[in-house]
Amino acid sequence: MNSSRPKLRLAPSLLSADFAALGESIAAAERGGADAFHLDVMDGHFVPNISFGPALVKAVRRRTRLPLDIHLMVSEPRRYLAAFRDAGGDTLVVHLEVEAEAAHLVRAIHELGAASGIAVRPDTPVERTLPLLAEVDQVMVMGVMPGFSGQRFRPDALARIRWVREQLDKAGSAADISVDGGVTPETGRDSAAAGATFFVCGSSVFDSGSVEENLGQLRASVEEGAGRAVR
Ligand code: DX5
Ligand code: ZN
Q1: What is the residue range of 210's domain?
Q2: Residue 173 belongs to a domain with what CATH number?
Q3: Which residues belong to the active site?
Q4: 153-170: per-residue pLDDT in tens?
Q5: What is the distance between the alpha carbons of residues 185 and 67, in angstroms, rounded to a whole number?
Q6: Which of 200, 205, 222 to mutate to test the pocket of ligand 1 (most atoms within 8 A of CB)?
Q7: Residue 54 placed within a domain
Q8: Ligand 2 mean position, distance from CA 126 (Å)
Q9: Residue 3 lies in a domain
Q10: How many domains does the chain have?
Q11: Which of 201, 152, 181 is nearest to 37 (CA)?
């Protein structure tokens, strides 16, 4: 195992939580051992769905000290980077597909003092992340087409995670590989085995049962997948 690989982290996706009781969902996820929160920003243009903007991120920021991972599924992320940073975003994740010069976006994110992530849709060749791998803090491999929670994980995401893992290990990079969409104990375990280190989990945490227990189960599975002892 490469020693530069970051520890495994679970990031519940608030898109699947009850928006009218977000504070309670956040508290439950913290009790269950969440390491960060994932917030899905959708503009109805880059993706068919519309979710929320900086005002909600700001409200979440007041409820937790955990890092906020902001997934910008919007056509013009450049216009909104500062607003989401000011609202309390720690990592700003932009899609590779939105601009020819994604490197400029990554630089703009760093200039705001935030960590950067680059997300790649299932229909985009993952190799296109290559020029950015040395600069970004997180590579987000989508397990589903972005837009909606509760979709089924696409198994071809595993080979894509493995490819990114090989590149990062070769470069000695400590960047995270996140997997977003369709993460369950089973697909989370397989993703961890493939080299993912950051697990976005929406419906598998919030849709049924206990949030704490769901997170506990996910934790055990990803640790097992990575072949690590449970902490
Ligand atoms: C999908 C979003 C995901 C979503 C994950 O477009 O980017 O973050 O909330 O939800 P699940 O885990 O239910 O697939
Ligand atoms: Zn997301």
Answers
A1: 9-228
A2: 3.20.20.70
A3: 40, 180
A4: 999 999 999 999 999 999
A5: 22
A6: 200
A7: yes
A8: 17
A9: no
A10: 1
A11: 201
Distance 185 CA to ligand 1 centre (A): 15
Query: What is the pLDDT at residue 6?
Result: 84
Residue 99's pLDDT is 75
Note the pLDDT tens digit of each residue in 10-35.
Answer: 999 999 999 999 999 999 999 999 99
Q: Is the CB of 201 under 6 A from ligand 1?
A: yes
In terms of Cα–Cα distance, which of 222, 129, 136 is closest to 173?
136
Note if the pTM is more than 0.90: yes
- Is there a domain that residue 120 lies in? yes
pLDDT of residue 228: 67
Residue ID of nearest Cα to ligand 1 atom 4: 149
For a pLDDT cut of 70, what percent of the chain falls above it? 97
Rounded distance between C-alpha atoms, residue 202 and residue 209, angstroms: 13
Q: Is residue 195 part of a domain?
A: yes
Ligand 1, pocket-test mutation among 25, 144, 203, 208, most atoms within 8 A of CB: 144
**Ligand 1 atom at minimum distance from 150 CA:** 13
Residue whose Cα lies nearest atom 12 of ligand 1: it is 202
38 lines ligand 1 (CB under 6 A): yes
Question: Ligand 2 (ion): which residues have CB within 5 A?
Answer: 40, 71, 180
Two tokens, residue 221:
């599975």
33: left (phi over 0), alpha (psi -120 to 50) or beta: left
Beta partners for residue 36, in sequence order: none
Name the band, by pLDDT with cuts 50, 70 and 90, for residue 230.
Answer: very low
Alpha helix ranges (H) inside the chain: 22-31, 54-61, 81-86, 102-111, 157-171, 185-194, 203-206, 211-225
